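The instructor's notes for this session suggest beginning with a concrete chain rather than abstract definitions. Hand out the sequence below and ask the class to guess, before any prediction is shown, which regions might be ordered.
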Amino acid sequence: MKYEFLHQNSHSNELILFFGGFASHPSHFSHLKSSKNVLMCFDYEDLSFKFDLNVFDKITLIAFSMGVCAASKFLKNYKFDKKIAINGTNLGIDEIKGIHPIIFNKNIKKFNLENFKQSLFKEKINLAKDFIFKEENSLKNELKELLEFALKNKEDNFVWDKIYSSEKDEIFPQNALKNSFKALIFLDEPHFSFFHFKSWDEF
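After discussion, reveal the predicted structure:
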């Protein structure tokens, strides 16, 4: 896993810890402002979490897509002031509460980056024209690692305070979120719903 500060403010003791989704990159979130510290975790080819959170007094966790699954496993023993999930579930890959394993496997075999971008952004794809992505082979490896990780870690007891679900999501089935969580906040957005927001504090 890689780490990058999207915002650093030496006058703030608050941290927004953000777990990106599959293929997420810091360039995808540069439009979101914050006066707090914002640390992004991304790139799940290497699934390990080794960041010391103890230097911050107040921490908000935000996780997106497969990052919801990863965060729920790595951070189950941490205490947060608020936990926010976006278009993902704790199980990530599951017949009922995630992307079906058979479908996920098929997506690995036929993965095409341009098709993925189209499903990710839909009508807002022009806003993402400068976004950075890894090469296709690396992204396929990331999918394989996520598949193995999710199927090996089936705990589903991580509790989120707020859960967003996109109505136009073509990547993560909305029914999986409905099967996983009682209260959802619906957005009229594609899977990548971050153009709906202008700052990290809006979440």
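Then share the key points. The radius of gyration is 16 Å. Residues 136-152 form the longest helix (17 residues).
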